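Here is an idea for our session: we take a single protein and study its fold together. Once you have written the record down, we can walk along the chain together.
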Amino acid sequence: MECYRRGGGRVLMVVLLDEAAVRTGVVTLPDDPPEQVVAAAGRLLSERVAGRTLSEATVGLPDAVDLVDTPVTRCAARLARAGRELLRGTEAGEIQFDGVASVVGAPEFQEPAPLRALLRFLESSTTMRETLQQLGERTADGFGVWIGRENPVDSLRCFTVMTRRIPLDGRMGMIAILGPRRMPYLRALHGLDALRRELGAPDASPLH
């Protein structure tokens, strides 16, 4: 579990579990603890869920993290309560993603508008699922690229989005890349194609 202080009492929680499941969400705390406290609280919670599956971690986050009352344990307890809600509701289909820390730390996302748009998108798995479905319906050959204002989804016009539909375990899935508008497109395309091959998808590559 990693926690990133975003100011105003808002904390971005990223939970990565051993089964490769990922959950992310924005939590609003009643106070605005400093960055060091938030990071330490995240590490404390990580120790509690280390090695657990998603369902085990959901019930493994305690209300009282430690008997000793400190700013870190108080923050961890509040994050634990929010974390349980974050880990629930996995039946609708898994969304897995990586690189959140890299995106949040990129220069383009130090501006308030794109950062807010990114956090709003990441805090709801339902929004992500609906957005990917909407974009998937607009790609006749299963591959799509939207840069800035080309994107039919208003909230994603700060970004570049690349999508690729793939068959996976008898169902249709999707790989997506979200990044700044000035991203290394060719490298992203190669990464998309490499991941498609790694997953064993037989579709033709957009690079060929």
